[in-house]
Amino acid sequence: MRARRAAVRAASALVATFALTAGLSGFAGPATAASGTAPSPAATATGPVTHEENDRVPEGSVWTQHYFPSADDSGTELHADVLLPDSLPKGKKVPVILSIGPYFAHSGQTGPEGFTHAGPSARFQDFIEGADLFDNGYAFVMVDLRGFGGSTGCLDWGGPGEQADVKAAVAWAAKQPWSTGAVGMYGKSYDAVTGLIGNNLDQRALKAVVAQEPVWDMYQYIYSNGVPRPNVTGTAGAYNSIATMEPMADDDPHYQANARYEDTHPECLTENSAGYRIADQRDEHWTSRDLAKLAKGSDTPLFVTQGFIENNTKPEEMEEYLDNHHGVERGWLGQWDHVRGGDRVGDGRLAMGREGWYAETLSFYDQYLKGIKPSVRYPAYAVEDSTGAWRAQRTWPVVERSVGLPLGGGSYVDDGGASARAALTASGTPAPKRAQPSGTWDMENAPATEQAPPEGLAEAQLKSLRAGDTTSSFFVWSRPVKRDVRVTGTPRISLKAKGEGNIMLKLYDVAPDGSAVMFDEQVSLVESGRLSVDLKSTDWTLTAGHVLAVEIGSIQTGSWRDTPSGEIIQVSGARLELALDDPADDIATQGDRSPFLDTYLSQYTVRLPAGPPSFSVVPGGRL
Fold first, then answer.
1. What is residue 45's predicted lDDT score, i.e. its pLDDT?
2. Across the beta sheet with 139-144, what order do the strands follow?
3. Could you tell me the end-to-end alpha-carbon distance of the chain, in angstroms, rounded to an integer?
4. Per-residue pLDDT averaged across 350-369, rounded?
């Protein structure tokens, strides 16, 4: 067992290359207490610890630890770190903010962080301080999912086991003697996924969910319509590494025994890795993790954030989830990467560009956990579009017209972009080989941007097409739009294919000067017959005079581990379905341009002069 754990630690160093990109400290080896210093006490259920006794306990709170069973009769035991207001009178009850995930281990979030003594995770210290949580009369509870931190059991990435953990945690938090019985959930990324799971379970005690940058369907994080993503193996490795982190030397014996569960159950890691290798979206492994579909009829008040252009937890099946959710909704949606509502970039600007995250979140919880009427009238949805402008609206998406646009057909070689790169080289610009992405990131951390396409690639390919060559893709062009029009919701492309291999679908916003921004994309396996593919959800404004270009072809760029078939794929009867909105109707709301938007524009702007038009984005010219 010592040899196996040493191997896991060695692998974790590789995982850290990608997983630890959000400012967490690097792997520091086995967690130990500092020698020669007085130990800081670790809490128990009956032995509360304050900040004055242990500096890892947030100021204004008292820390205790608890253990309780999961809800699936599997024998899994869950661990909870509980933080109560230190001024809470005996017998007084408070509502509970609950966060459930894999990142609450005492030694660190995604790897050991060099702590000298045990203590509760500081993962959401920004929220605790920003919302002044304890002075405002809330408890904060962090529960380790099975297989992580102080919980036993085999990790079960978003599956039935973790769903049972969420159910048990909500019920446990509601029944504690210090709890009013009203529970809200809070999280970002993985612990936002557990918030969506909580909503789907429809427990009476759960009164509100705040979910920042979640995954809406677990399959979509690993595969795109059968095509594996670069993290198909790396994500499994990342979570196996997190699950096998050593506890702190001064953690209590109960916690230490639970944290080493994998030592005597090595099958947990093997089984976790095996699940990611299932490519069939219809397999029960994935249908049981399709959170968007499982949300049907749910009604817990829900506050979400989503970056339309982020490269980690992408807006895939977001619209389906929100359509299936029938309760109160609040949202911040815009042009950012994998960040929290209150995060700031290096120069101090807000990463999402909008002020007031903590105040609005606290107001949301006050309303649904305490019954306090908000003193500020917040918009149901605050949305930043591709121009950096913010608007308020009652729902998302707002659709003024749905259109089905004929794209016709064409042919391409499924060669992974080899012919496109050959065309670029022939034009006098040596084209680098397409880099095979190496992804070992988890849901919390991933590369902020993907590798940029070689400069001139699209334009060189366009010249080959005009010369009559069949190359890695083909393009279809709209007529210039006569007035500003917004593409919103989830675009869909359907077509008939002849041949087998891969297909990549891209949408470009093409300016009159020939500069073009790729603003939406998706890939799929393809075989002869009809195919329909949902792209990512988007909110992108085409300004007057701009052209919408559609590229259909082999997977040439982006983060996928595709295997080109080498076949010529013939496409016919292609059709693009769009939801359109009129920016002239926007109601402005507070917010600045999110800093990441300019990073994205720099990364994804290419030279692509418009070709002969074959369709109109707004048939008839009226929205």
1. 79
2. 49-50, 61-69, 77-85, 139-144, 94-101, 179-188, 206-212, 302-307, 329-334, 381-384, 390-393, 587-588
3. 66
4. 98
Q: State the burial class of residue 84 (Cβ atoms within 10 Å of its Cβ: 0-12, 13-18, 19+).
A: buried
Q: What is the 3-state secondary structure (H, E, C) of 230-285?
A: CCCCHHHHHHHHHHCCCCCCCCCHHHHHHHCHHHHCCHHHHHHHHHHCCCCCCCHH
Give the Å distances, CA to CA, from 463 to 458, 510, 607. Answer: 9, 17, 12
- Is 402 in contact with 580 (CB distance < 8 Å)? yes
Answer for the pair 268, 243: CB distance below 8 angstroms, yes or no. yes
Residue 18 has pLDDT above 90, yes or no: no
pLDDT in tens, 527-548: 999 999 999 999 999 999 999 9
CA 83 to chain centre: 27
Q: Alpha-carbon distance 580 to 262, whole Å?
A: 51
**pTM value?**
0.91
Provide the pLDDT confidence category of residue 22 given band limits of 50, 70 and 90.
very low
Residue type, 108: G
* Helix/strand/coil percent split, the chain, to 5: 25, 30, 50
Using alpha carbons only, give the angle 318, 323, 325 rounded to the nearest 5 degrees: 95
Alpha-carbon distance of 191 to 209, in angstroms, equals 11
Q: Please name every residue paired with 489 in a beta bridge, in sequence order, or none if there are none.
A: 538
| Pair 312, 342: CB distance under 8 Å | no
The pLDDT of residue 433: 65
Token digits for 188?
Answer: 């970002």
Distance of alpha carbon 26 from alpha carbon 16, whole angstroms: 7
Is the N-terminal amide bond of 374 cis, ω within 30° of 0? Answer: no
User: Tokens 């609950």 sit at which residue?
Assistant: 98
Helix 457-466 × helix 418-426 angle, to 10°: 90
Q: What is the pLDDT of residue 231?
A: 87
Phi, psi of 460 (to 5 degrees): -65, -40
Tokens of 582: 């009129």
Backbone angles phi, psi at 523, to 5 degrees: -130, 165
- Given pLDDT bands bounded at 50, 70 and 90, which one contains residue 621? confident
What is the rounded CA–CA span in Å between residue 535 and residue 315?
9
**Can you tell me the distance from the alpha carbon of 50 to that of 158, in angstroms, rounded to the nearest whole number?**
34
Taking Cα atoms as reference points, which of 150, 155, 159 lies closest to residue 237?
155
- Show the tokens assigned to 151: 């919980």
Q: Which two tokens stand for residue 413?
A: 């070689």
Strand 329-334 versus strand 381-384 pairing type: parallel
- Residue-wise DSSP of 568-587: EEEEEEEEEEEEEE-GGG-E
Q: Determine the pLDDT at residue 175.
A: 98
Q: Which of 596, 128, 24, 131 is nearest to 350 (CA)?
A: 596
Q: Which residue has the tokens 């012919």?
A: 419
User: Nearest-CA neighbor of 120 among 132, 137, 136, 108?
Assistant: 108
